[in-house]
Fold Tps3p.
Amino acid sequence: MTIIVASLFLPYTPQFEADVTNSDTAKLVESSMIKMDCNNQELSNNKQERSSSVTSASSHYIGLPQEPQINGEALPRATTGSPATGVNYHNEMEMLSSEQFLEELTANATHAANSGIPQSGNQVSSASTAQRPSVEEFFSVPCARVCTPTQETSASSVSSSHALSSHHNDLSSNFIKSGNLSFDSHPSRARSSSKSAVITPVSKSVPGVDPAVVDVAKVREEFQQQASLPSMKRVSGGTAGDCSTASTGSNLKYSEQFHDNFIEDTDSEDDIDSDLETDATKKYNVPKFGGYSNNAKLRASLMRNSYELFKHLPWTIVDSDKGNGSLKNAVNIAVAEKTVKEPVSWIGTMGIPTDELPHEVCHKISKKLEQDFNSYPVVTDDITFKGAYKNYAKQILWPTLHYQIPDNPNSKAFEDHSWDYYRKVNQKFADRIVAVYKPGDTIWIHDYHLMLVPKMVREKIPKAKIGFFLHVSFPSSEVFRCLANREKILEGIIGANFVGFQTKEYKRHFLQTCNRLLAADVSNDEVKYHCNIVSVMYAPIGIDYFHLESQLRNNAVVEWRQLIKERWHNKKLIVCRDQFDRIRGLQKKMLAYERFLIENPEYIEKVVLIQICIGKSSDPEYERQIMVVVDRINSLSSNISISQPVVFLHQELDFAQYLALNCEADAFLVNALREGMNLTCHEFIVSSFEKNAPLLLSEFTGSSSVLKEGAILVNPWDISHVAQSIKRSLEMTPEEKRRRWKKLFKSIIEHDSDNWITTCSEYINSAWESNQETSTVFNLAPEKFCADYKASKKHLFIFKISEPPTSRMLSLLSELSSNNIVYVLSSFTKNTFESLYNGVLNIGLIAENGAYVRVNGSWYNIVEELDWMEEVAKIFDEKVERLPGSYYKIADSMIRFHTENAEDQDRVPTVIGEAITHINTLFDDKDIHAYVHKDIVFVQQTGLALAAVEFLTKFYNSGVNTTDNSRISLSRTSSSMTVRNNKKHSQNRVDFVCISGSTSPIIEPLFKLVKQEVEKNNLKFGYTILYGSSRSTYAKEHINGVNELFTILHDLTAA
């Protein structure tokens, strides 16, 4: 048996390597048609990287080039506009509007230092600066040299909008890629020579389609034709070996290198793995006056060359830095430590575009992954993948799941278009899982990218063991209902046996959403929908303490800690690490920190907040807003060259640097507006073993449910409260720090990755076993049924019949009740029941789903609670007003809400869901439950049918005769129906029970009761007969319909 783990990206990816001195490769580089990742430092001297804000003003945000500095001294700006010797920056200044200029000017007018050039009286000597390295020197060190930071020489640092780096390394294999990556440090990817470069195929752009104004079919056909042609990633124009500036694709059909004037454009993704490629700054050189005509033959030749290039390039399989790092870490550690004894197979995409790969190469890569890495790649065309992931998952699902509802007027057309891509990718995953699956395997599907897969797999493998885990937050039903395809997504998820969430809150939201949008019946940990029973639980993911603790002892971490202590001697460090997006609350965090410093000016020279932002930003306006606040904060310092209150690093750090910062931090601040499980908190807690620094944690994160006992919970929307909490954390006594840290550490140990894997595996297995138990239904064997009937002495029949009986049914029931105990169960009232079955002698009736039982002509009350009915009636009054045509009926013990005549049938599921949620929440502690069956909402005391059957069993097994009912404690009333004494009231115990009906929340507990009584040997023969749907029920026998049942009963009485 194998555990099949399905995630969007595989843990491994193919890596192609090319010789950058090759002439063919050089042509592709010069034509900006390939994406290259250079290995040679000499080839990348001019590589532009996103800078960190290490001074109060950054030209990247105010539109002005900033004077470069070496060792703290400003370099003179060349009057001609060309850069100073040895310094490379743009000689083209971005235009700045008057409004922007005034805003920036007033924002940074507090001190002269915020221009980025210290006053002459405040400058520091180069020797002094060399002893205390700059921030860039700390956080721009090549990974190859990170193990010996004490050997670093003081390089010149440039504080500009795009920091200039003297090195280039494989960032994706050495830097932390996401907040969920946890402590996974990927090994460096070896290359064969210093002149080699990693070559990556490039996917085509997704067509922008607005179905309201274009012929969608025609556009799709055109792009399908285009998809058959190869495409390559654009890189910066230059020499063949120059990888200094990575570029992305353009709408231009040519890229010319020979003109001085150019148009500069920047396009970056919203997060680090938001596409198959990582985009950076790109330049498009546009020829003057229309330039040269496009040489189609040359372009076609280059495309053919690119195709041949990947056909002959050597490739290797390396660790992938994309995808869910916490999942990969948890699974790999569990396998290594034998926590998971079964073999694990992975299913996912390869992490690179595949359209450019020749078929034979793609086939060889797939075989290599399957045979050596237990990984089965899902291969889809690049446009479909990008449409599913970048468009639907990232721009529709991700914001909605985090309470950021897309409000673009064109989003509906965009959502409909991208939904097709999303569905196709999910179907590809399902098909791949079905192909790999073997009987007995466990299928474990992960995250919001694959929400449709469980149902798709279930349709092909009905008895498969399937689990689904959502790693991000799940919103309330009011937010989730904004998705156009909400029902399809929910139905896709509950195709699994088990659905897992990070927190109890997310689980509750999911249950309520299923209840309100699908009108599914839910309990505390189950969803019952279309005869399926789905287990819904929460299990927070964690990290492995022992694995991380061993990395903290690494020499590189120890040396980096020493350098950090020297760099910020006698300073309090507040460390933050977030993805760069609005959901993380970066601006509000800076505003709160600014408020803290303004209210407590004595801390301006004593505290440094280090904000690490990872991932790329596609929101320059938000980036500008943040930097305006950062500049204001830094302007509070009297000498920014010595004391800088905020260090804003928009770049990835080496893992050793990140751990060292955590170890030396005096506080860790997470201010997310909405987030799932943030494992950076867990890593900080382990790293703070010596200092026991406090954790300030947003109450809107999933981590707060696990760490609330020891963390300082903050409301990110309350700027003043966050500012006060920052001061509290910095002034906390050592005793309180230690006490809080112990609680946090205990939570980390209890909710580690090992426990998460074990818990989820148990949930999946138990949910599947429960479903197997309830779905084991066999067709009724009439011969055995008759034989068991004859072999027993006292028989009890209970028929659940919801419709008025036919004459044939009345005749057979009359005949059967002459020698047996026969009861009919229904939701009819007592008076209606008696009028329908008045012609049947000696028949027993169970009215209103078990509230009242008629025994020997007397009605007994099973129901106890009735005072709730008036309040429920008021709720339905409101629903009737909102849904014209609907109505409700009040019986003696229940209320039924009917919507079959409602004028707006599209609103019926929503109204029903709201009513059920309202009633079940209001009466949760009073055993009053609302549920829907056959489009009718029933509200009644729970467990009445089960109590009625238990009462009848006790009654007929107690030896009570027909005239002495003193031993029955229930109240009773008289009945107008005739009773005739017969031999069914013998002193024998009931040894044959038959309960039949269509599946419903009323009869399923009765099926389960009979099964348990047989297993305990309290009952000799027990038959639970289901007609209709045979899925997910406790019934053991099945027939096609009620007519077939009464045909068997006819044969039974005639025998």
